[in-house]
Write a structure and sequence with these properties.
Elements (H helix, E strand, L loop, with lengths): L10 H15 L3 E12 L5 E6 L4 E6 L1 H4 L11 E11 L4 E11 L1 H19 L16 E6 L4 H13 L4 E6 L7 H15 L4 E6 L13 H9 L4 E5 L7 H5 L2 E2 L3 H8 L3 H35 L1 H49 L1 H5 L5 E4 L4 E2 L11 E5 L4 E5 L22
Parallel strand pairs: 3-5, 6-7, 6-8, 8-9, 9-10
Antiparallel strand pairs: 1-2, 1-4, 2-3, 4-5, 11-12, 11-13, 13-14
Helix pairs in contact: 4-8, 5-6
Length: 418
């Protein structure tokens, strides 16, 4: 091999040489460009390119760095990427390993805000149908904000003036800088877990778009939307709008206004109760007067007196029925007595003892005691018993006569001496 012949490298050897040159030649650097071909892989790594008018740089942002993102990148957004150049040996390509990513300038921040707003709106996070009503008389108000800012002082001052009896629970969080969004979201979730607050105020005082950016991050928007406790967003001044405002159940222009929204003025409540008490007393008096007039009308009406008349008529009718029953009973007794006397008379007429009183007697054959009605029933020598009206006698038959043409008892002897 001549000295002019080039050295022959394997692909891997040459790639490693290039990798070493690039990685040693460039330290940490920042690159500005437009996001293109953005992909969030299932592993959590982010792959995209940065481009300008004439060039394109491949970039990768690993999961650990992506967890610190304060916004959601998308194609067409101008960003500033900080990191280091590296060569991906397997593909033979150089790329930027991105450690941090931020919108490039105020315009890009606004672009990122609008992009996130459109995406969350498409998911329905801002729909009115999801807005929860605020409690009319909350007993406990939760506040998620910085414990040292002007916002908490304004909120506490207004709450103490309007409703001193209300309890306030403050969840202290950072509201600006790296990690602030995660703290705000965690504070909202913690208040929901405890479940003591009836309503939440989430916010901070005024500032620049960058200062308020924590309330524009997706993690905060989703925490506000998922809160089971109604949330009032109170971020910045009246002209400031954040993603949290759209996701909240109610937006307040300032923290002080938020305090006025969540509680009613105790003086106004007392005045309202006084007016309602007066109205209620008037209504009660009127109702009593109307009922008394109605009652008097009923008492004085014929219909109300009619039951008394009916009672009197009923008593009179009872007397009439009683008298009628007595007469009917007496007539029934009289008829029954007459029937009984008729029966008694017939019985007396049929009584054989009554005939004995007129001189007749009853003859019976002895010892059988059978009544004798014909002479042919006896023969000479038979013993007979004679029953008189008073007393009895015994005799024997001397003889009998079979004459059947006799005139009846007493008209002829029964055959001679007994």
């Amino acid at each position: 091999m001549s000295s002019e012949d080039p050295q022959i490298y394997s692909v891997s050897e040459l790639t490693r040489l290039v990798k070493g040159v690039i990685e040693k030649s460039f330290g940490p650097l920042a690159v500005r460009g437009e996001v293109s071909n953005y992909v969030l892989h299932g592993s959590g790594h982010r792959y995209f390119s940065l481009k300008d008018e004439s060039s394109l740089l491949r970039c990768v942002m690993f999961r650990s760095a992506g967890a610190r993102l304060r916004f959601q990148p998308e194609d067409g957004l101008m960003v500033e990427a900080r990191g280091a150049l590296a060569v991906y040996e397997r593909g033979g390509q150089y790329q930027l390993i991105v450690e941090s990513l931020a919108p490039a300038g105020l315009g890009s921040l606004q672009q990122a805000l609008e992009a996130l707003k459109r995406r969350l709106a498409a998911e329905g996070l801002f729909d009115e149908k999801h807005k929860k009503p605020l409690p009319r008389y909350p007993g406990t108000i939760g506040v998620v904000t910085s414990p040292t800012g002007a916002a908490i002082r304004d909120i506490l001052r207004v709450l103490k003036r309007r409703c001193p009896a209300a309890e306030v629970i403050v969840c202290p969080v950072r509201v600006q800088g790296e990690g602030a969004a995660e703290e705000i979201a965690a504070g909202i979730e913690m208040m929901n877990r405890h479940g003591q607050a009836d309503v939440l105020i989430v916010g901070r005082g005024g500032g620049s778009l960058e200062d308020l950016w924590a309330f524009n991050e997706e993690v905060v928007a989703r925490a506000v939307f998922s809160s089971e406790i109604p949330v009032v967003s109170a971020v910045g001044h009246e002209i400031d709008f954040t993603i949290a405002d759209f996701a909240a159940d109610r937006r307040a222009p300032t923290p002080s206004a938020a305090a006025e929204i969540v509680v009613r003025d105790s003086a106004e409540i007392a005045s309202y109760l006084s007016r309602e008490r007066s109205r209620l007393l008037v209504a009660i008096r009127k109702a009593l007067t109307d009922r008394r007039r109605d009652l008097d009308g009923v008492v004085s009406s014929y219909g109300f007196r009619r039951p008394v008349d009916l009672l009197r008529e009923g008593n009179q009718r009872i007397d009439e029925i009683r008298h009628s029953l007595v007469v009917q009973w007496w007539n029934w007794i009289t008829r029954k007595r007459e029937i009984a006397e008729g029966c008694l008379g017939r019985l007396r007429a049929l009584d054989p003892h009554g005939i004995l009183k007129r001189g007749y007697c009853i003859c019976s054959k002895e010892p059988e005691g059978r009544i004798v009605t014909r002479a042919s029933q006896l023969t000479a020598g038979d013993g007979v018993g004679l029953l008189f009206w008073e007393g009895k006698a015994a005799a024997s038959v001397v003889g009998t006569s079979d004459d059947e043409e006799g005139s009846g008892p007493g008209e002829r002897e029964a055959g001679g001496e007994l």
